[in-house]
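Quick one, tokens below. Sequence please?
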């Protein structure tokens, strides 16, 4: 775990010193990966003593690669390969894996709620690979956005405002606090 943390810290430092828009996207994606790993480690640590070899393990893998030119999100290549590799790895570890590629907000949240609260599951893992954003106060996962949300965010930006002032946009994002609460449902359901 210490080696993993040092590697992440090193990657963060490399990205901070890099120039340009792409480095900001990569840094935000790195924050999302770290957040997901930290949540996974805390869930696993709580239940490590209760899990046995016959435990039921469920994983939800979500990938978002779609381009959204209106708000400056480029197409992310290889997200599908990333999810396929993670799925193979988790299946070897005994996980039942559900994969979602380019879901909208409601579809992603519904599936996360459905799987997180299933009482028959002993371990639940959530993995996200794709676009994310940060408004300075909170991080967000960016699912596939509707045209209305994209247009509202673009209008706000064109008017010199933060895209996060557009309610249509923020209503379609998945905030880190909402994600945290959904994963806490999984913990509460297991106790």
């Amino acid at each position: 775990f210490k080696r993993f943390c040092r590697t992440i810290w090193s990657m963060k430092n490399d990205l901070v010193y890099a120039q340009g828009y792409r480095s900001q996207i990569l840094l935000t994606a790195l924050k999302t990966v770290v957040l997901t790993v930290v949540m996974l480690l805390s869930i696993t640590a709580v239940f490590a003593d209760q899990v046995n070899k016959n435990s039921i393990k469920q994983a939800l893998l979500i990938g978002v690669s779609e381009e959204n030119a209106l708000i400056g999100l480029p197409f992310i290549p290889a997200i599908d390969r990333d999810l396929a590799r993670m799925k193979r790895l988790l299946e070897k570890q005994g996980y039942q894996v559900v994969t979602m590629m380019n879901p909208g907000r409601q579809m992603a949240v519904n599936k996360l709620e459905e799987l997180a609260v299933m009482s028959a599951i002993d371990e639940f893992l959530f993995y996200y690979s794709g676009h994310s954003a940060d408004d300075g106060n909170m991080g967000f996962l960016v699912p596939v956005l509707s045209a209305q949300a994209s247009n509202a965010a673009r209008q706000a930006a064109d008017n010199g405002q933060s895209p996060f002032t557009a309610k249509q946009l923020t209503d379609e994002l998945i905030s880190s606090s909402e994600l945290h609460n959904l994963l806490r449902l999984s913990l509460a359901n297991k106790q």
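Residues 4-23 have pLDDT under 50 and may be disordered. The first helix runs from residue 2 to 17.
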